Every structure is written in C-alpha cells, then in structure tokens.
Amino acid sequence: MPRTAHVAIGAAVIFTVFVVWIAGAWSHGTSIKAVNDIAFVGLSILGAFFAAFAARAVHGRLRAAWVAMTIGMVGWALGEVLWAYYELALDEPPFPSLADAAYLLMPVGFCVGLLLFPGENGQSRGRTLLDGVIVAGSFFVVSWVTILSPMYSAGSDSASAMIISLAYPISDVVILTIAAMAWLRAARDQRLVLAMLTIAMACIALSDSGFTYLSAESAYDSGDLIDIGWVAGLLLIIVAATASRDEVGAPKARSASTVWAPVWFPYTPLLLAGIVAAAEPATIFRTPMVEIVGALLMLAVLGRQYLAVTENRRLLACVAEQALRDPLTGLANRAMFSDRLEEAMQRRERDHVSVALIVLDLNDFKVVNDTLGHPAGDELLNRVGERILGCVRNSDTVARLGGDEFVVLVDDDAADDYAGHIAARVTKSFDKPFVIDGHELFIRPSVGLAVAGGHEPGVSAGELVKRADMAMYAAKKTRTADVHTFTPELRVADPREEGLHGLPYSTPSTADVAAVQLLGELRQAIDAVELTLLYQPKVDLLTGNLVGVEALVRWPHHRRGLLSPDEFLPLVRHHGLMRPVTDLVINTALDAALRWHQQELHIPVAVNMSAPLLADPRLPARIRRALADRNLPASVLTVEITEDLVLGNIEGTRDVLNQLRRSGIRIAIDDFGSGYSTLSYLCELPVDEVKLDRRLVVPIVEDARVATVARAVIALAHELGLIVVAEGVEEAEVAARLTEFGCDVVQGFYFSVPLSAEEVLRLAAGPTSEHHGARPQSLERSSSLD
Ligand code: C2E
Ligand code: CA
Ligand code: CA
User: What 3-state class would DSSP assign to 26?
Assistant: First the structure.
C-alpha cells in the first residue's frame, strides 16, 4: 500500500522535526507558544481531513466509524483553535473553557467510532463498552488512591475544574480500553489500523495525564515535553485513516482463530484496583464521586457477566440451529426434515390428520453446474429455495436434502387437498426463468406428491418418503411439467424398488451403496465403451424407402439386463456424464455408418444430443474430426436436439448449429409438441427437420383437435422449408393419416423397432438385393414385428 507508506514517512518526518524542536527549545527554556499552537491547529485540522477522506472512501459500518471519528477530530481541531486564541490573545488561558468542551468531543467521537469498527468474533459492542467502563473504573480507583485523592483533598481548584481535569484521564482510559478491545476483535483487514489507533490513544492518554497533573500545579505551558504524546497521537490517527482506506481495497482473508484475550482483558485492571484499594484505609473512598464510580463499576461487572452469558447462550442456540439448516439455502436440512416428518407422523397416528410430502428434483441441474460453474449452480439452488418458500405457508417445512432435491412437508387437517394445491403452485412458479449471471435459465422440476391419509394404516415416515420419491421419478420419466401423485401402480411399474435414485431414507446405507455402485459401473461402462446402440429405421412415407436411422443408446448391464435410456440417462445427466456418453454415441454411430458405407449402403444416422451440449463451441470441430477420421461425408450425420433445457445463451447454441450445418450436418428438433421444444426454436435455430412427438402423433386418429394441430404443424414446418418426421407410429391407420397430412418421414414400431447395426444392414441390403446401393430397399412393414 504505497499511499499508507507515503503518509507514514511524512508523519515520521514531521514527528522527528517536532521532537527535535521541542527538546531543543525546552532545553533552552524558551517559550515557543505561538509556533507550537499553530503546529497543533495545523495537525488537528489535517487529522480531521484525513478522517473525513477515510469516511468517504470506505463503506457500511466502517464508514459510520470514520464519520464518528471525523466529528471527534473536528472537535479536537476546534479546541486547538480556541486554545491558540486563548494563549495568544489572552494572557492567562481560562480553565475550564469552551476549548475543553470542544476537546471532549474527541473522546466521545472516538468511543463511538471504535465501537462501530467492524469486528470478527461474536462479541457484542455492548460488552466492549462495558469492558471499557470496567477498565476505566478500575484505573480510576487506582489513580484515586495514587494521585487524585491527594489532589482532591488539597482542593485548591473549583469543583468544575476538578471534574473537567479528571474527565480527560478517565475518558482517555475508556477510549484506550475500547480501542484495545476493538483491536482484539477487529476484522483482519482493519487490525493494523486499530493497532495504530490504540497506540495513538495510549500516546494521547499519557499526555492528558501529564496535562492534568501539570494544570493542577498550574505548571503547564504550550511547548512542554508532554506535547510530544499528542503530536504522536495525531500523526498516528492520520496514518491509520490512510491505512483504513487502503486496507478496504486489499483482498480479504478470514482468520479462524478464536481470540481469548478479550475474555480476561478487563479483569486485569480490576484485579489491580482491588489490590491497590485493599491496601488503603476505607475512609479515603468515602466521597460521592468515588462511591458513584464504585457503583458503576459493580453494575458494569454484573452487566458484562449477564451479556457474556446471554451471548454464549445465543451462540449455542445459533450453532444448534445451524446444525439443522442447509448452509447454502438456509432451508431445513435432512436432519431437521426427518425430525419434523417423524413428529408429523406421530401426530397423524394420534389425531388422524393426513401428512403429505412433495418431492422436487430439478431437471438438468447438473448442466447448469457444468456450463456456468458451481457458484452459478449455488445461486440457482438459492433462488429455487426462495421460490418454493414463496409458495408455502409458514407452518410447512421446506428442506433441501442435498444436491438439487427439495422436499416440502405439509401436515394439516386438510393436507390432502392443500398439498396438491401447493405442489401445483410450486410447479407453476418455475414458469418464470431464473436469471443467473445474466443468463435466463428455464429450469423445470420433476415433482412427486404422496399423501398419507389420516386413517391409512401402516404408512411409516420412510414409506411416505419412498412413495413421494417414486412419484417424482414417474414425473421425471414422462418429462412433463405435471405433478405426479403416488398411486400403488407406480410401485409395480417402478423397476427401481431398490431405491436406486430414490431418497435413501429408510435404509440409507443400502440405497446409497446401490446408487454409488451403479454410478461406478456406469463410469466404467462409458470408459470401456460398453454402451451400445440400436438403430430405429426412418421411412419415407411416399416411397416406403429407408431414409435413415436414429441411434438409441442402451446399456447392457450384467445384472439388470439391457437398460433403456430412461433407466440410466437421469444418472448420466445428474453426474455430468452427458458429454462422454454423447461422444461415445457419435463414434459408435459413425462406426456403424462406416460399415454400411463399406457395403455401399449410404444410410444417414441421427444421434440425440442434449441441448446444453450444443452450446459448446468446440463441438463442431470434434464432430468434423470424427467424420474425417472415417472419411465419411457430413451428410451421413443428423443431430437431434433433445432435452427440455436450452441455456440463456441461445446465441452460442445457434452459432454451433450454424457451424454444424455449414459443414453439411443436418439438424433436427426432437420431441416437437411435447411441451418443451417450443415454436420459438423453429424461428431462432437453424434446423432442417422437425420430429413430431408421439403425443402429437398417436392420438390423431381419435382426437380431432390433436389431428388439427398435427396437420397445422406439418404445414407450418413445410412453410419453413423443413422436413417433418413423425415418431411413435404404431398403427397403419396413423401412418395413413400422416400421409394424408403430408408428413414426410415416419418412425415407429409399425415400421420397425430399433435394430442392431447388423439387422439394419440385412434389412437395407434386403432379400431383393438388386435394389441396394445408394437407395436402400423399400420398407413397407418390418418383419421383425411379426
Ligand atoms: P426419442 O429421441 O424420442 O427416441 C424415440 C424413443 O421412442 C425411443 O425410446 C424408441 O425406442 C421409442 N419408440 C420408437 N418407436 C416407438 C413406437 O412406435 N412406440 C413407442 N411407444 N415408442 C417408440 P428409447 O430408445 O427408450 O429412448 C428414449 C429417449 O432417450 C429418446 O427419446 C431420447 O430422448 C433419449 N435418448 C436415447 N438415446 C440417446 C442418446 O444417445 N443421447 C441422448 N442424449 N439421449 C438419448
Ligand atoms: Ca430422438
Ligand atoms: Ca423424440
């Protein structure tokens, strides 16, 4: 900090000059009143300015501290001006005078300022103040015994003169104490500043005591040696003010060490006072002033002890509370949630009220963490917590169970109705995007709800959690924004009875172990390229020709059998493994395409790519490389944009898509009409193909409205120059309808289930092998279904 160093050097020079000069003048016995007075006026005004600069440069509590000290310094400067006037214009400076009133503004300002200094450990300002009073009172007792009592009994001066001359040393001791306390409890970046201020107060206190003594003897004159203390104090205040400004800009470090000195600090002088007083006859304490100080001292000691006890109690309560809170969001943690749930379940037994749980898991939270960084992820979790809190009553418990899992506990006479209402409200609150780091993020939760009715037997807390969890996974599976409520059928349908992804509640260890084990196996499977692909044919509706395939990932698991994407992609997403999985899929798919190519079958292959990966600017180069390695043309590859979350930087995504498209790769929008891919994608993103979601396809034979929408979407897509692919065609009737609507390509079990690469080869080469070549064999209906 160059500024502080410069000021410190300047201060040292001024100090040296002053000391040499005072010492020289003193040794010659000359009166140097005028110059001395002007020096004090100058320095105190300078001090006021430096304090004011510090106040302007810093913020918050520190600013308030420096404002108070600036007022103190202005008081001091005023006092100096008045004093100079008395000394120079009048022969005999009056005492006490207006100057004393101004001077005494300084201890008040500094007391307040030092108390306001931001501290680090838990001690309150009230306790600091009482410590100051205890120390000051003790010092008063000591000084009473040693100098004041003899002076007082000599009684030459008026009572007010006596009181004012006592006010200096007493107030000095109080500030000195407060400064030392503030120093001990200071935030690390202000510790040096407070050290300087404490030393400054000590210097000033020394000079003030000397002054009291000399004035009582009427032996003080400006230019006395004791002036050195004041000058040193003023200069130190100036340097401290500069350092305070500099330190605020410097990087902050936190100290974890507990400071124990403040605990015993005030008792040392108290002990001293006790010893000194005990040695004296009790009679010398029998004056009103000493009795008042004694009473104050007792009160201060009692008050301090009381504060110390309540503070400790508060601290303990705070620690206990924190043990039950999630440190990130401030919501209840798992421990508190379990407690509350257990309580609620007991109440349910007793009073037959119902208890409901709403479990929320954010979709693709991992993507936010991976693309925007963990601080953004934390910020998002906080915002999510706030939104959920905004949807519940005070009596409901909202907890974060770790990661991106939240739970709301509702126990209430009307929990059945009310919980559904809350769940819907919470879900709706996610309609608005979250703005994190300037990105607009559309985050969706999967929401599961389970209610234990007041008269339903045999539902334990663990069972209820499990049910809510199953409902949540059902919601996750359908990828809709609807709240899923637990029904007994879910249990039958849910293959993850073992609590694979579930909340490990009733048997935490086994469930955790299973989840961790599966994750480990998944990582291994990815590394060892054990994930495989099936290829579902895409068929031209007019010609019946195979026009391409869609690659669909599978995980052949040694115990669980062939796992479908719905069974392990949540895990992939959750643990940030989407990129390696996608790389694996692209490479495997292109390997298959190469094999077909070598057989003169030019079958384009489509791969699913989760939208957030498409914001990665290095993606196009990686894909081009994969194509070049196999000497394949870019036209063999189609990228299907899947997943429900497109990050705020739609620009980045558009950039990547543009690059891909320029190199000849086709872009398709997947699951159009599922509620996630919106119309705006069609306008904002460069695409070649729209894939109509099953939900827009299957019902077209019985639901006229869906049919109208499907027909309109097909027309719209054609208007935009896009190819339309209908998914999930299982019946001839649907296929016929689609042909009528002008749909271009279809995909579904009616034509073919997903096939292995060899099966695709056989199918395309076909029994009528004269057809093969660039135009694959026509495919009316898959034999593999028969
Ligand atoms: P998707 O992209 O919509 O894929 C079509 C899904 O519908 C496939 O399920 C397919 O087997 C199934 N399907 C095909 N025809 C029919 C039909 O006529 N009726 C019915 N009911 N279903 C049909 P799959 O293979 O289980 O894939 C599910 C989803 O997993 C895919 O939906 C896709 O979003 C995702 N996925 C699959 N492979 C990958 C991948 O490699 N990467 C990424 N990111 N996602 C993938
Ligand atoms: Ca797809
Ligand atoms: Ca799809």
Answer: helix
Band the pLDDT of 682: cuts 50, 70, 90. confident
Pairing of strands 689-692, 666-672: parallel
Among residues 170, 186, 55, 70, the alpha carbon closest in space to that of 128 is found at 186
Rounded Cα gap, residues 181 and 652, in angstroms: 55
Tokens encoding 368: 């936010």
- Between the CA of 641 and the centroid of ligand 2 the distance, in Å, is 8
Give tens-digit pLDDT for 23-32: 877 666 555 7
Half-sphere exposure of 324 (CA within 13 A, CB side): 13
Crossing angle (nearest 10°) for helices 732-741 and 704-719:
50
Domains 2-249 and 334-507 share a fold: no
- Residue 477 in 3-state DSSP? helix
Distance 727 CA to ligand 1 centre (A): 9
Contacts of 495 (CB under 8 A, 6+ apart): 567
Q: How far apart are CA 112 and CA 174, in angstroms?
A: 11
Fold of 334-507: Alpha-Beta Plaits (3.30.70)
What phi and psi, each to the nearest 5 degrees, are found at residue 605?
-125, 135
What is the predicted pLDDT for the residue at 785? 42
Greatest CA separation found in the chain?
132
Q: Which helix (H) or strand (E) holds 408?
A: strand 405-412
* Choice between 745 and 103, residue whose per-residue pLDDT is larger: 745
Tell the residue nearest (CA) to atom 17 of ligand 1.
Answer: 728
- What CA–CA distances, in Å, run from 495 to 445, 491, 492, 500, 525? 21, 8, 8, 9, 20
Residue 483 has pLDDT above 70, yes or no: yes
Measured CA to CA, the distance from residue 445 to residue 77 in angstroms comes to 65
CA of 534 to the centre of ligand 3 (A): 15
Cβ–ligand 1 contact at 536 (below 6 Å): yes
Say yes or no: domain 515-771 is CATH 3.40.50.1820.
no
Best mutation site among 608, 639, 701 for ligand 1 pocket (most ligand atoms within 8 Å of CB): 608
DSSP 220: -
Which pLDDT belongs to residue 598?
94
State if residue 670 touches ligand 1 by the CB under 6 angstroms criterion.
yes
The CATH code for residues 2-249 is 1.20.1070
Q: Ligand 1 in contact with 565 (CB < 6 A)?
A: yes
Length in residues, the chain: 786
CA of 607 to the centre of ligand 3 (A): 11
pLDDT digits (tens, 9 = 90+) for 146-157: 666 766 666 555
Shortest-distance ligand to the CA of residue 693: 3
Structure tokens at 256: 């974890």
| Angle formed at CA 200 by CA 199 and CA 205, multiple of 5 degrees | 95
Contacts of 525 (CB under 8 A, 6+ apart): 531, 555, 557
- In the chain, where are the structural domains located? 2-249, 334-507, 515-771
Are 757 and 534 contacting, i.e. CB atoms less than 8 angstroms apart?
no
Q: How far apart are CA 504 and CA 402, in angstroms?
A: 11
Q: Which of 480, 550, 552, 585 to mutate to test the pocket of ligand 1 (most atoms within 8 A of CB)?
A: 552
Residue nearest to atom 33 of ligand 1 (CA): 608
- Closest ligand by atom to 640 CA: 2
Query: What is the 634 CA–ligand 3 centroid distance (Å)?
Result: 22
CA distance 195 to 180: 8
Ligand 1 contacts CB of residue 564 (under 6 A): yes
